Amino acid sequence: MTEKIAYDDVEVGTELPARTFPVTRATLVRYAGASGDFNPIHWNEKFAVEVGLPDVIAHGMFTMAEAIRVVTDWTGDPAAVVEYGVRFTKPVVVPNDDEGATIEVSAKVAAKLDDNKVRVDLLATSAGQKVLGMSRAVVRLG
Q1: Dihedral of the alpha carbons of 67, 69, 73, 74, in degrees to the nearest 10
Q2: Consecutive 10-residue runs of the chain (142 residues): their mean pLDDT?
Q3: 28, 127, 133, 142: most buried by Cβ count inside 10 Å?
């Protein structure tokens, strides 16, 4: 676990360390098993294309979970996240190859709030497109 971040040491504009998360079809199968979400758009290319998608897509909740890892890694304490919300703007398309897709996530402190809390705004992209909109977390720091 990393050293916890102190509220007094953070300023508006503080950038969190960015991360890139790989996503393969195998990742989606493991997530489906863990979450119980076996919707075929997440594993069956034929079905995904038939319903109008370009290919298999990552689960929205998986994408959301990967993004918040930037914040939890930064705080050193997942329980420090007191609010988190996103809007799903574009799917993460995961081709059936050895590389799959990536989700790139950056974040910065957008506001200092009362009670040692800060609002962190996140930017999550895949294939050059924003995949999460209004992605924000409120975090209580030490």
Answers
A1: 30
A2: 82 98 97 97 97 98 98 96 98 95 98 98 98 98 93
A3: 28
